[in-house]
Design goal:
heterodimer; A: mainly beta; Immunoglobulin-like; nine-stranded mixed beta sheet; six-stranded antiparallel beta sheet; 15 strands; 38% strand; B: five-stranded parallel beta sheet; 32% helix
């Protein structure tokens, strides 16, 4: 498919959206909250399934990513949800999608109040210019959604290199940064060296290279879950995840990555309250 | 509207009959202004100098003022060759004699401190206000001080970036000269986008050439905030064939991203907490458009300047055109060659608009030559046009040097690179570039 063809499809869709928006305005008396729900998630099955019949709130959730990426192979994306992260009101899950990737799912993270802060960063693969979508669900049944457009170009002087091959397969890296102020959660950086083979590439003989990805990641504090994540093939090679943890006592943070073959990598870090 | 039409007619007349005839048809100061529109250009690098020259070439009756603090402009391209002792420093310096003497550009060696887009006026550092009809900004890049913890303007006096050619380049060179044999040179490279994508990789090659010649037991560590880079395979082949294992590249995923710098101890700390201590530390920090762009209100939240692709007029402010590294022109890279061709498009668009014509359809070209060793050059090239209102590479137009190539091929590319520099120096400043 050419870029030209894709642009045409996109502009047609935009017109549809505009027409739909006009329609919404016309029946604003009947559905005053309709505009809140408008967003690219409406056009994505996986996102609609998550939202169900609720009207997502588009405030209190923020996506940070560049306006333009000159190399779509590892784009930094951060999502922040305003939440007290207490036992009776916390963000239960955060989901990231790229609506024009071959498979839109990027990441799905289940959180517990032990995370202390509903804020994640990762690095994603973006096949072309598109919207990145974040959806969050809270323990009180609220659904939040936001989206941002990003333009992806492969710039001159930047030939997209093969970043699939990593000499250090399943090497893990962890860094815990103590909080700047008492009572704040600590920041945790995690990375595992892994090609995140998409299953969409061909080898030199022209045969498809089978999909092989890290598909699960889990963080436990003294045995209790902090977060559990599903990683998808739209996550960049060498999956990176930044999250938070708020321990009440000094303890051990145990991290587990699982490959879809069942292979496991583990790491531990000591952690103390802020 | 009437004034506008008169102005266009005046220009047409000027083009046809010369200034005397046109001025004779009207009288008074208002007409004098209308008869000689004024273009102000800020920045005298590849973009600004080219814009000033090509506006004059297309219509000598347009008044052009170039504001550039330096009386001699030193280019980033080929400054790495000075580090490798393959060039004299003065060979990458360029003056403004041709612009002033041959093309009649008014050259002011001062800083532009502010732009008032409503009054259409530029404030210089000596407090002068200069009115413009069209403004061209070619401000290059500024460093994002503090983006890496501990790396500010003061730190750059000890751990230079040398990403603007001049005193910083000479400082880095003198530090390399003072380094003992067996020392460690560390270069920290930023994530995209930044000025000159292949620059850090050519730089370590040129430093390696210097060290191989004078201090062969030394090592080079390239700590990178990226997992891949421009002409990667060609660079890695070249580094290995020319310098053995002298150069070690650490990618983002192998903890190459520098997050903290201690310029006093020349120590750096990476994302996952690894510490490295350098003997000479070269930090290339994240960058943004030169400050005058932000003051003119043409930057977006990224710190760079979005432009209308067909003319490179600011997407945010009318009558301000922006060229070069400051712009968001992807997929065109931030290179001197791109700034030069963007400036020609801007010159054509400005002259056409002032003469009451539609700007012509643009096309741009770029080649980035990199030198790995004397007689060992590589390149990447592309041609760009506008498709669906966006800049796109013409399919199949460019390419990179082949991975497998005889020595004679690399030698020819090294020669082409030197010829390119001479040619673009001549095109931009009328200088020899040798």
């Amino acid at each position: 498919m050419t870029m030209h063809g894709r642009s045409l499809i996109r502009s047609v869709r935009r017109r549809d959206v505009l027409a739909a928006a006009a329609g919404l305005a016309a029946c604003a008396m009947l559905q005053p909250v309709g505009a809140l729900a408008a967003g690219p998630w409406q056009r994505l099955d996986a996102a609609r399934d998550l939202i169900g019949d609720t009207v997502p709130d588009t405030t209190g959730i923020r996506l940070d990513l560049p306006l333009v990426s000159e190399d779509g192979s590892a784009v930094s994306v951060a999502v922040t949800v305003d939440s007290p992260m207490t036992d009776d009101d916390f963000v239960q899950s955060i989901h990231l999608f790229a609506d024009r990737n071959p498979s839109p799912e990027i990441l799905a993270v289940e959180l517990t109040p032990r995370a202390g802060r509903a804020e994640l960063s990762t690095r994603v693969r973006l096949n072309e210019s598109q919207s990145v979508i974040a959806i969050a669900r809270t323990s009180r049944g609220r659904v939040l959604a936001t989206a941002r457009d990003i333009r992806v170009t492969i710039s001159g002087c930047l030939v997209r290199a093969d970043t699939y091959d990593s000499p250090a397969d399943l090497d893990t890296r962890v860094r815990v940064t103590a909080p700047a102020r008492a009572g704040e959660p600590a920041e945790v950086l995690t990375l595992i060296n892994h090609p995140m083979e998409t299953g969409l590439r061909l080898d030199e003989a022209g045969d498809p290279i089978p999909e092989r990805i890290i598909d699960r990641f889990e963080a436990r504090l003294n045995g209790e879950p902090v977060l559990r994540a599903r990683y998808y093939r739209s996550l960049a090679a060498n999956p990176f995840l930044r999250f938070h943890v708020a321990p009440e006592t000094p303890g051990t943070l145990a991290l587990t990555w699982t490959e879809d073959t069942g292979r496991i990598a583990e790491a531990e870090a000591r952690i103390r309250p802020g | 509207m009437a004034l506008l039409i008169n102005r266009r007619r005046a220009l047409t007349l000027l083009g046809a009959a010369g200034a005397g005839a046109a001025l004779a048809s009207w009288g008074g100061p208002r007409v004098a202004k209308a008869a000689a529109p004024h273009v102000v250009v800020i920045g005298g690098g590849f973009g600004g100098a080219t814009a000033a020259k090509y506006i004059k070439r297309r219509n000598p009756d347009i008044a052009v003022t170039l504001i550039e603090p330096a009386e001699r402009f030193y280019t980033c391209p080929f400054s790495n060759l000075y580090l490798g002792e393959l060039r004299e420093f003065e060979s990458i310096g360029h003056g403004y004699d041709e612009l002033r003497d041959t093309y009649g550009v008014t050259v002011l060696h001062t800083w532009a401190d502010g732009v008032d887009p409503d009054a259409k006026s530029v404030r210089t550092r000596n407090g002068e206000d200069i009115a413009y009809d069209k403004l061209v900004l070619s401000p290059g890049v500024d460093m994002q001080w503090g983006a890496i913890e501990g790396y500010d303007e003061g730190a750059a006096d000890k751990a230079p970036h040398a990403w603007k050619a001049g005193p910083q380049t000479r400082l880095l060179k003198s530090q390399l000269e003072a380094m003992e044999d067996g020392g460690l040179f560390i270069l920290a490279a930023p994530a995209n986008p930044y000025r000159c994508p292949p620059g850090p990789y050519e730089r370590v090659a040129m430093v390696a050439h210097y060290l191989k010649t004078h201090k062969p037991r030394s090592k080079i560590l390239l700590l990178d905030a990226k997992d891949s880079f421009s002409k990667q395979a060609l660079f890695i082949d070249g580094w290995e064939s020319q310098y053995g294992d002298m150069i070690e590249w650490v990618s983002l995923s192998n903890d190459g991203k520098v997050v903290r710098v201690d310029a006093d101890t020349l120590e750096v700390e990476t994302e996952f907490g690894t510490r490295h201590k350098a003997d000479v530390l070269n930090v290339v920090p994240p960058q943004k458009a030169g400050f005058i762009a932000e003051r003119a209100g043409v930057t977006d939240e990224s710190g760079w300047v979005p432009v209308k692709p067909a003319t490179f007029e600011s997407a945010l402010v009318d009558d301000i055109y922006v060229v070069g590294d400051a712009t968001v022109a992807a997929p065109m890279p931030k290179s001197g060659f791109c700034a030069n061709t963007q400036a020609k498009v801007v010159a054509a668009a400005i002259v056409a608009t002032l003469e009451g014509r539609e700007p012509p359809a643009p096309s741009w070209s770029n080649t980035c030559y990199s030198l790995i060793a004397p007689g060992y050059g590589i390149s990447v090239a592309g041609i760009y046009h506008v498709v669906d209102g966006k800049i796109a590479e013409v399919e199949g137009s460019g390419g990179v040097s082949p991975r497998e190539a005889p020595d004679a091929f690399r030698t020819r590319e090294a020669r082409y690179g030197a010829a390119w520099y001479a040619a673009i120096s001549n095109d931009t400043w009328g200088t020899a570039g040798k």
